[in-house]
Batch of 2 targets.
Target 1
Amino acid sequence: MSDTTYARLDVLKTYKLYVGGKFPRSESGRVYEVTDAKGEWLANAPLGTRKDARDAVLAARAAVKGWSGTTAYNRGQVLYRVAEMLQGRREQFAAEVSAAEGIGPKKAAALVDAAIDRWIWYAGWTDKVAQIAGGANPVAGPFFNLSTPEPTGVVGIVAPQAGYGHSLLGLVSVIAPAIATGNTVVVAAAADAPLPALSLGEVLATSDVPGGVVNIISGRTADIAPTLASHQDVNALDLTGAIAADGPGAARALEAAAADTLKRVVRPELDPFAQDWTNAPGTDRLLSFLETKTVWHPMGI
Amino acid sequence: MSTVAANAPGVAGSGLQDVAASEASLRRFLHGLPGVDQVGLEARAAALGTRSIKTTAKAYAIDLAISMIDLTTLEGADTVGKVRALCAKGRTPDPTDPTTPRVAAICVYPDMVATAKAALRGTDIQVASVATAFPAGRAALPVKLADTADAVAAGADEIDMVIDRGAFLSGRYFDVFHEIVAVKEACKRPDGTSAHLKVIFETGELQTYDNVRRVSWLAMLAGADFIKTSTGKVAVNATPPVTLLMLEAVRDFKAQTGVQVGVKPAGGIKTTKDAMKYLVMVNETLGDDWLTPHWFRFGASSLLNDLLMQRQKLTTGRYSGPDYVTVD
């Protein structure tokens, strides 16, 4: 018997992409170092490539039919479930947000709480959006004329890269409105703060969100975003983080590429660093990725 | 009886003319074929699937693969309209790009042959018809022959017959042989020409690679113009090792008899990547002689859309999606 005590080695987490409900490493096999706000090493994140982005688009496309076909009520339940799962891992996320954004643990925990509340907020919206975005139109003829909002399809998202609360609250604020209305998304995570995003993938995987509805890729946005912008099978593009990631010129180029295939585009804020993600989100994002379907129905006599 | 010489002209003088003289000699020959090295075959097929084919070579491979497709619809729910739509797609696979090659053939059930023939008038696209109680092949010989003759009379250029797997698996090779010979006879037209005969083995039901090698030789000895892996109606369809094995059998048969036989993998080939693996296999095993729609075909339906999407990517630089090809 020896009374020598050994120092326990920490088990380090291997962060992975979240694509099609699975957790693959990058197709390239490469990783990059993620540091906290002070430059200290935190973890290695997978360096997602253009090929990873294309695979994610395939997964997102495959998930459109099922997800957009669920009832709005059911989507609300699923989004609520995400909030429940996130609540259970509050401490982990608080630590990751604190490290990513260089803020104190109390403020970080408040940001995680705000992110949880934001899921609840959008969960409530799923079965109410049709009432504000659609309705009965008055027409000059014996018809019922009804407009209903339909999801656009696959949405490519450049996640917020700056602003207070961007790493988790900002991310939730761009993902939740897109999927609440039945779209599926491919997210280019914030290159400097990808860990909360990759962990959010683990939450989504355990909360009834079908595989492929949300796909999260970490890596250089300069690789991933142009692939999403030019891909013909992506129907809309959210450029929220594009200016902060690669500058206004890159954001303009992405918008031009998206125009080639007639994508809906949400433009980034001109000063993304001044953005405060704790502000009330409003319905703008919720209504950004919808197509209006109008039906004429003859009236009985 | 010299059935072999009559049906496969090159067989005479190759030492194989007596093989099918009797049940016993045929069995002796088929069981005398060397056993298949399963590990080696699978490793070889996997190794041939790792080639990286890019840019101009990829563009060439995509166009070649499109021109080799037997665009297929074999559903109980097939309608005249659906067959016409498929023929239109075969004529003009990508309406936005007229340089896209046409497919090799349209493959339908016998009752749809006349419809397909009319829809393809003025093109060199062949009409292939499955026959002989496809896909199970469970019918009496006269029924199978009538099925075949009916398709040929309706204008089919190619006949895809299924072998009697039950007879083959229970060792009645002679019956299988004579059935193929009889169907080949039924492919003859009044003017003396003959519809091309493709023989489907349904390799997913044959259990072993040795059986695949045996049935390949059996069909080629009986006069098959093409040997085809599967119906597409069972769980296991064309796989690279099985196709490689058949390609090797075809190569050996030509070396011994001088007769060239085509190969058609069918079912389960859905992506451009898969198709290119098969083309590499053909090139490495058989060479240029077989790299034409005349000697190698893909039995597929969804493969065409993927090839078109990859083709669009190469011409436009943008990744394409299923919104940009027809739904069939």
Target 2
Amino acid sequence: MLNLIIRSALNHRLFVVAVAALLVVYGSITISNLPIDVFPDITKPTVTIMTESHGMAPEEVETRVTFPIESFLNGLPGVERIRSQSGIGLSVIYVEFKWGTEIYRNRQIVQEKLNLAKERLPKDITPIMGPVGSLMGQIQQIAVYSENNTTDPMEVRSIAEWVLRPRLMTIPGVAQVISIGGGLKQYQILVSAEKLNQYQLSIEQIDKELAQISQNTTGGFLEKNGQEFLVRNIGIVQTMDDIKNTLIGLHFGKPILVEDIAEVIEAPRLKRGDGSFNGKPSVVMTVQKQPGADTVSITRAIESAIEEIRPSLPSDLVVNPDVFKQSNFIEASINGILGKLKLGTILVFLVLFIFLANLRMSIITLTAIPISFLVTAIVFYIFGLSVNTMTLGGLAIAIGELVDDSIVDVENVYRRLRENAKSVHPKAILKVIYDASSEIRNSIVLATVIIALVFLPLFNLDGLEGRLFAPLGIAYLTALLASLIVSLTLTPVLCSYFLRAKLEQHKDTKFVVWIKNIDRKILDWALPRSKFILSSAVALFLFSSSLLFFMGRDFLPKFNEGTAMIALIAPPGISLQESNLIGLQAEKIMLEVPEIKSASRRTGRAELDEHAAGVHVSEIDLDFHHKGRSREEVLGEIRSKLKEKFPNVGVNVGQPISHLIDHMLSGVNAALAIKIFGPDLITLREKAIELESAIAGTKGLVDLRVEEQGLIPQVKIHVIREDAAKYGLSPGEITKLLEAAFNGEAVAQVLEETRLYDVFFQFDKDSRENIEKMQKTVLKIMPTGQKVTLDLVADVYETSGPNEINRENSQRRIVISGNVSGRDLGSLVEEIQAKVKEKVKLPEGYYVVYGGQFESQQAATKKILLFGLISLLGIALVLISHFHSKVITAQIMVTIPLAFIGGIVLLFLTDRSITVASLVGFITLCGVASRNSIMMISHYLHLMKHEGENFSKEMIIRGSQERLVPVMMTAFVTSLALLPLVFAKGQPGSEVLHPVAVVIVGGLLSSTILDIIVTPVLFYRYGKKSAEKYVHYEKNHEQV
Amino acid sequence: MKNIILLTLVVSALSVNNLSAHQGHDHDAPTTLKSPKGGVIKALDESRVEVVSKKNDIRIYVYDKDLKPAKASRFKIIAKAELPRTKKSEKINLVEKDFSFEGSYDAKRVHRYTLLLVVTDSKTDLTVDLTFTIEPRK
């Protein structure tokens, strides 16, 4: 089959060249159309259910809304975890499905259950699903503010809502635009309780009348002169005067209008969130993209849309689209990796030229790189994959091996052509090239199969790590497969065109002669001293393995997003105004730090936002200047200044994308989440504080805080049923009326041009400013004229209640979270676990679960090690079936630990931490290392089988010398291609690839040096019987 | 003149110290203090008092200023339950433990009552009235 491919290619050389040219053209066009992103899509399939619950207290939201919905969702197929947050008037439930499940199918089954659950919920409460989101979905923030405060905040918000938002929403790929800050304009009817008393009107009456304030109805059709006229009954409110002149009741026969009992004003809607930019109150607009959409092109489209609109906006209005742009991170990351790929390719060419000293051979070999890359791009396009740091990383790792396939072929063809040229009876050149290519095809294919096997664990990872590294594996294997095909087709064809002339004159370069001489000396010395060589190798392996105990364990390396996100968590119960004040002061502190370029803040929750933050939470996004101190130093200073200024405020320092990843892993925006589960809120709070003080001060643990599930002040109006019954009032009626009076309700809408504003009714501030006034609210007027006030039918009192109740998998839970600084996560968690075990005693029914990156790191490590072992077993079986010898198989596999030596040592010298990324590096190393060994041993066997060599020291030295150049070239080429990544620690986009590169480069160095010595020594000492058996078997097999 | 000023200062200082039974007020809003036992905490000048109630059981924890548990023997606490609307009040017997006081009150069918505490801190010799709303059915 493989011979047929080589033969066909050589018989149709022009066709092969034409196909290659076509691939180059099509691939070049395709590559420019691929979507670009930082990472592959790492969003866990999650359905978010939001239920607005009319200002209910968290306890009521939990029992009346969250719990009934959760009970319907439990047991849905594919659900891994259900998390919920019951806050003031809002229930948010996150239904997390297994990785790999289809989000639209998940949404469908959730929707079916929601339809059933709605029957169990209080009237007028409807759960709705959030849009299909993406973890990397928040792509841009835009700040809108008045430069000199000429345009008032409400108008700024109106422009954001009605001018900017509709335009941005039309951009393909934009899923949602959420605004916070300014004020959403409303027409407010602020009813005076005193005037209600004066005119003897009840809330019941007001509520009934205002419900009909704005209504259009139809009058059917009127027929006239053979024509029909549509009759419209217009009662809709169009101006503020319409509202004021609406009849609300009668007092001694005199009509009472809205303006008689209420003030009608234009005012902002009740805010549960606010925003600012650089310490100035602003509207902050957050743009979310659709999953799979191209962030960079959407950002460009947003910026040009804003430029289009800008001339029509008030002159003092500033629209700053450069507050936070994910595309900056993407461009920095992708350009960084592309730069490294280019540098790598140049270095590869230099190595080829130094070793081969032959421009033609170098160019033929190098052809494999662009063609393999372009074929990979076409495959990506077909399967809808994006260009991202991980796929580019896969290509960077593959560069060495892409060239290697061709090197082996070109080198062998060249050697055979030279021999043929010296021969007395030279064969036809095409025949020589065919034979030469056929000779080495088995080892190339075998090596590629081994590498494919090695990468199997990556495709079995299902968590975040699977999502990150599977595309790397796909890119790597696709490129490798493409290079295999190139080496079997295009390389022989190009050899036939370009390697005909001046063969006799070519000699090894001085450099190659020099290293071959050294190699010979080493082998002459080493082959008789096999015991010493092998025991030294074992000692080196043991030494390097011992270094593992001095290294930390982390899930993934820290990202460098170029921005930071600081979360401030004030004590629950704080008002938005106070929380805003803290946020503004914090912004000022941050802006005083010279390295900070800008700060944008969101306090509380924006309307439409599925992030259910209370008003006590502020999130500040920071952008940095490109000069000054390191990020760690700057953030450390900010952290300590904030702690000093606000001792009662929790501070969490992180980065936007990392925060979202943490949130996806554990539901908490921190690297470590310790969750206490149990039924009673008081006990949960008690144990959380106990646990916090038990682990406080642990080295490396920063941003430690207990989830703010504290008590907030409440005013309760408890209806006394017996008393209410005396006045013919039911508890339901009373609570409904009170909701309208104190919480308010939108009763109509006013249309101004294309803008729609709510008409909102509520008691004025005077009527609800204190408990005494609330108690005197008239609920009803009896036929006798007696006014039924609230204090007659209810007990109004101050108390406290939880600010929010969080649940996970149907159980209440509280989280103690923290981040890690200057220490690895694994050892920190071990220390924390020991402290908790010793100091925290939990009552029956309560338990602790450790989550966050730690949990993912443990799960991923276990899986990688398990699948790694299975892969090794697979490799062993493939090698046995090929070589029919356990001894040869064992000799090839011995090179794997030799490769680990360098990988471990270099990792120890650089990162000193084992992450999932470095484990992926070790996996890749298994393939690369065994590949070299396969090539070397295959060549010994080839010499014995085809060139009449006997098993001897000379044969081994000859075989080693002939393989020396390809082995060293592969090592140099791969190492140099990855070298830019080794030096790119912490650079944007290189964070995950750096440890992979460190392990591969270190491993290649050790495996190459040791392979040149240990493999021949091993083969010389243990390989004779197996080699002779193999040659005998192969010869017999051929005869058969 | 100098003597008069000094005398005034001394008298003022003494009069401040003699305020041994000042009316209870919350020096800190409950939200700014983390309650170690998950209950409602209120601040006195040199100490903190936290009330945790579960059904009929009441536990009163006492702490020093830094929220470290304080010996219960340092405090004298008188507790009363006042029912809403009727304003009837009943004394609650408290049992002194190492760092807390424990008591029980059956509010029968009432949805809430006010726990009135008269706390005397022997360290400062101050007596403070504190009120807590207890909702036994919650």
